[in-house]
Amino acid sequence: MTLAFIGAGMIGGTVARLAVNAGIDVVLSNSRGPETLADLVAELGDRARAATPAEAAKAGDIVVASIPLHAYPKLPAAELAGKTVIDTLNYYPDRDGKIAELDSGELTSSALVQRHLAESHVVKAFNNIFFKALAELARPAGAADRSALAIAGDDAAANAAVATLLDTIGYDTVDTGSLADSWRFQPGTPAYVECYLPPSPAGLSQEDFFAWLYQQPGVPASAKRIKELLAKA
Questions:
Q1: Beta pairing, strands 121-124 & 148-153
Q2: Whole-number mean pLDDT of the chain?
Q3: What are 53-70's pLDDT values in tens digits?
Q4: CATH architecture of the domain covering 2-232
């Protein structure tokens, strides 16, 4: 298969590395042009190439969208029609601006993306883990310390395809249900980020928390643990 990326930053780049390590071809793209991805392509080797977002969308059997949420209207809907699209996007109002449908609870962020990509099959995944932990916690199938990632989606076949991808790159899957249920692992919930980290010190400023975060090793979180945390949301 070919895994394509629209956005190749921290999460996108990490998933690309895991995919190449698992023998999957990748096509990378971003908003700044293929030439800006030369170093990452060189690092990843012969299984990787760079393209425009529209070209990547056409090339991917599965496409990972890993861009700021406010940029979701730029996802190429025509080229993504019929595709399984992994949505890693999170809503941060300070960065993305206020979005009325999300603030009211009318929609989840993934449902907003699905509305834009009406002919695609959107599956929420990779949004609730820090990129460093994502890189560190991949394990072979059956490993006692294998971690799980939550997914949500409205199409059973797309969900199954994403679960197979997760298994291939080193993770179990917890299927939380539809895109309407994806709020259970969005920012501010028990299953978001900190479940894959050691307990953080109390009283840290935001700046100090991020400095602490970059120094911490990933902590495995089993499927049972993720299910427990999702249930607490």
A1: antiparallel
A2: 97
A3: 999 999 999 999 999 999
A4: 3-Layer(aba) Sandwich (3.40)
Phi and psi, residue 101, nearest 5°: -65, -30
Is 128 in a helix, a strand, or coil?
A: coil
Residue 206 has pLDDT above 90, yes or no: no
With residue 50 as reference, give the H or E element that holds it.
strand 48-50
**Contact assessment for residue 117 and residue 6, using Cβ atoms and an 8 Å cutoff:** no
CB 2 within 8 A of CB 27: yes
Contact 70, 95 (CB under 8 A): yes
Residue that has been written with the tokens 């190429």 in this structure: 76
pLDDT digits (tens, 9 = 90+) for 133-158: 999 999 999 999 999 999 999 999 99
**For residues 148 and 7, what is the distance between their CA atoms, to the nearest angstrom?**
23
Q: Which CA distances in Å does 45 have to 35, 168, 183?
A: 15, 19, 36
Distance between the two ends of the chain, CA-based, in angstroms?
35
Per domain, the residue ranges of the chain are 2-232
Tally the residues of the chain. Answer: 233
